[in-house]
Amino acid sequence: MGVRRAVELVLRTAAESHNPIFTWGPLIHNPQTVDFLKEQGVGVVESFDEIPENATIVIRSHGIPPEVREKLTELDVNICDATCPRVGNVQGIAKKFAVEGRDVIIVGYREHAEVKGLLGYAGEKGMVVVSLDEVDNLPQLDRPVVIGQTTLNRDCYFAIADAVKKRFPETEIIDTLCESTSQRQQEVVELTEESDAIIVVGGFNSSNTKRLYEIAKSTGIPSFWVETADELSPGDFAGMSSVAVTAGASTPHWIVSRVIERLERFGEKRLPPWEWPWIKDFGYAIIQSNILTGLAAAMLAATAIFLTGKPMPVNALIATGLFVFSMHTIYNLVDWQGLALVDPSKIRFFIGNRKLLSVASISGLIISLPLIWFSGVWPFILMVLGVIVSGVFAFSKKLPRFLTRYSFATWGEIPGAKDIFHTAGWFFAAGIIPVISVKAHFWPSILALGWVAMLSILRASLFSITDLETDRVLGRASFATTIGERGTWNISTAAVALSAAIICTGVSFDLLPNISFFEIVPLVYMFVLLFRLRRSGIRRGTWAELAVDVGYLLGGIVAILLRILT
Q1: Contact 448, 499 (CB under 8 A)
Q2: 115 and 135 share a domain?
Q3: Same domain, 399 and 507
Q4: Does the structure show a pLDDT above 60 at 435?
């Protein structure tokens, strides 16, 4: 929690501040995360002379000594405190007992940033021990208090604390260890019981990662400590069938994902065909390039036209797919910071294929316009307007002047703006333009547009939940950040229910073709998906896209098959 909070706080500050931003020492003990922050414009300083005027200084998650904090407040800088709340609590404990005149024994590593901070709060009453041998070297103390570095191994901490109490019977021992760290250490022991080897992923300067590795190694099974996937060699795992992976608290999830992907390649010969890496890579490419997104939009448009009872013009469906593909790709290329957090594998794909995707997205827009021209002047005019509005939203953060009167300076300040525009874009591209293209009757058109509106809201709501953490970090106003995760789940469920009501009402009153009732099939899939995701948790990134868009593909396939058969 402390690590995640610190990274979120720094990225949010970087997005909102126009001043140079620096962390006092590395924010967390993971070089990959520090490098990522540098890409966001967040530097690192370790002396007062390095700090420029009007800078924002972020206090790292491990905390700092009070004398450093006092010096920072004297300078012309803004201070952003990203100290882990649990560390801050231990600092308060050290200060409290030191003020009372009691000796404070800190169990931990002297050179660790957290211990240096605790020692600063304990002042002259503080002393550090790191082993049982050092307990014997302590001077005579009266009623000392024992506290510990939050990421210590629980058994080691209490072994030293008990040794202090044995020497000084009136010693007060306080459990200051991080519970999540202790749980992870216990999980390592459990993993080693059912695995041939274990890999610990994390920075070599991370104390809690080092502890995980020491525990794994003590069990006797082959143990590996790596910072990145490139450090793994297939020869190290020859003859093994089960390898466990764990990670330090400060290890980004995308680093862990890369380790798992590399391990899968080592064991490719033992995997079933559908799990072969090259097949997965092909599937990833289709999803990550937004080809699947464009296809899902085209299928939603096909469903809308099917509900009107009109023939499906292929040019309109292709134009819809190309338009949505292009706009999603352009947005991803512009908003790569958010993509890097929610789906690191996708950002790697985008960075590696930036030029190709840029050309493909522009080409898609260029091709979509003449294609939609064959459906009439109004669909063409609407798509041109859609391209202009989408471009303004993607490339311009500031609102037009006529909207600033509502106290909003940027798009992101409008409550739910991100998902409102997502919904509007899909409704416009997969609903309004295709329905106008076929010149359908009034009520079938209204019901078809209502169907598309509900499914557009559903898609935006589900991705609002998957992107919740990222939207909070970057300060983006989505459904989930505005009304909460529970409220967004309720919107998703209501969207499915209303979609079903539209179909049933249309068929019952002969406003829609009777065969439209078969569009209940994709709704059943969506309902089951919602139930499972809400119960087990929705996965972020690539697989979330696949799971959601399958419903739209299913609806389009049903519509096309029924149109062919009838």
Answers
A1: no
A2: yes
A3: yes
A4: yes
Segments in 200-276 forming alpha helices (H): 207-218, 253-266
Decide if pLDDT at 377 tops 90: yes
Cβ-count burial 252-279 (b if 16+ within 10 Å, e if not): bebbbbbbeebbebbbeeeeeeeeebee
Domain around 149: 87-177
In the chain, the amino acid numbered 476 is R
Among all residues, which ones are annotated catalytic? 114
**Does the predicted model carry a pTM greater than 0.70?**
no
Is residue 285, in this structure, part of any structural domain at all?
no
Query: Is the pLDDT confidence value at 341 over 60?
Result: no
Residue 29 to residue 60: CA distance in whole angstroms: 10
DSSP state of 200: E
**Maximum Cα–Cα distance for the chain, whole Å?**
94
**Does 450 score more than 70 pLDDT?**
yes
Q: What is the DSSP string of 134-145?
A: HHTTPPP-SS-E
The reply to whether 123 and 37 lie within a common domain is no
- From the list 474, 462, 478, 539, the residue with the least C-alpha distance to 337 is 474
Do both 186 and 171 map to the same domain? Answer: no
127 with 79, same domain: the answer is: no
Distance CA 114, CA 91 (A): 9
Helix ranges, 428-478 (H): 433-438, 442-466, 468-474
